Every structure is written in C-alpha cells, then in structure tokens.
Amino acid sequence: MTTVLQKHYQEKVVPELMKHFGYKNINQVPKLVSVCLNMGLGDAVNDKGIIGKAESEMAIIAGQKPQVTLSRRSEAGFKIRAGWPIGLKVTLRRHKMYECLERMIHYSLPRVRDFQGLNARSFDGRGNYNFGFKEQIVFLGIKYDLVDKIRGLDVAVTTTARTDEEAKMLLKLMQFPFRGD
Fold it and tell me: Are 43 and 31 contacting, i.e. CB atoms less than 8 angstroms apart?
C-alpha cells in the first residue's frame, strides 16, 4: 500500500535525481528516512492536564501516539524539576512518514496565514531540513472549538543526502513549497 507521495518519489524523483547528479546506482539516490515532530509544552508545569490535550492533538496530526518528553534536570529559572513532562515528540518512518508529509505539503501548509513558502536556508549542512508551524489548528482533523491554546510544532525531515544541494533538490522534487519557486 503506497501513498501518492511514495509513488511520485519512485516514478519521478528517483530518475530525475539520477540524471541531475549522475548517479550510477539507484541506491546512491537520496531518500527520506524519517520525519520528527516536536511540540514544547512549557506551560505544562502549571497545569498537568495540558499534556493530555496536546497529546490527543499531536496524535491526530501525526497519526501515531506521541511520546512525552521529560526534563533532564531541574531549572529554577523556569520552575521545572527533573523528570517533569515538558513536551511531546513523534518520529515517523516509512508509510506513516509519507502520509504525514503528504498532508502537510498539500493541506496544512496552504492553510497557514500569509504563507510565502518554506525557507530554503533551513538545511543543517548534512542534508536534513527543519521547519515549524506557529499554530496546530492548520492541520486537518484539529477542531478549532476544542483547542484550549494555540501551540507551535517543529518538524525535522531527515534524508540520506550528503549535501544540502542534494537534499534541497530531493525536497523540491517531492513538492515542498520553497520560497521563490
């Protein structure tokens, strides 16, 4: 069972990358490895019920139950003790990764207010890409009436590309809407 994005990668992206970079072997072609979603919940220090609400929203966004992240050490400035829940994370791979990316690219990003495109300079130098959402309400399935607070969400796309140039070409061909395209 393949998604439309997986099929697009296999039929269009792989041949284009092989031609553009002159790869001899199909295994040299960069591919997507994982997508990590992260939501910081600093306000969960005062109200533990926030974790449950955010967890259900993150499960809708990712299509998978998130893992609660705990603080590693106590920070008096933030009024946090070691072991307290301070965020949520999900790592998606294979089929669920492609489904989530497809929903983000085609449905969620166009719903962002004043969306000008993704920043093409957010690569890390090793072929991975990071971007974020300021509001979780742009995702399909999140009911605006039931949202208690607007929260941001960070997305990290991990690829097998060795350079930023390869990764940018891969993501551009995978229909990521970069600025200036």
Answer: no
Angle subtended at Cα 5 by Cα 2 and Cα 54, rounded to the nearest 5 degrees: 95
pLDDT, one tens digit per residue, over 65-80 is 888 887 766 666 666 6
Q: 159-179 pLDDT, tens per residue? A: 998 888 888 888 888 888 887
- Bridge-based pairing of strands 129-133 and 32-40 is unpaired
Q: What is the DSSP letter of 44?
A: G
Residue 6 corresponds to which tokens in the numbers above?
Answer: 């997986």
Distances (CA, A) of 89 to 57, 80, 83, 84, 154: 12, 19, 16, 15, 9
- What's the N-to-C CA distance of the chain in angstroms? 31
Contact (CB, 8 A) for 96 and 64? yes
Distance CA 41, CA 155 (A): 15
Cβ neighbors of 100 (< 8 A, separation 6 or more) are 35, 37, 61, 62, 63, 92
Tokens of 177: 């809407």
Q: How many residues does the chain have?
A: 181
Q: Locate the domains of the chain by residue range.
A: 4-173
For residue 48, give the DSSP letter. Answer: T
What would be the CATH architecture of the domain defined by 4-173? 2-Layer Sandwich (3.30)
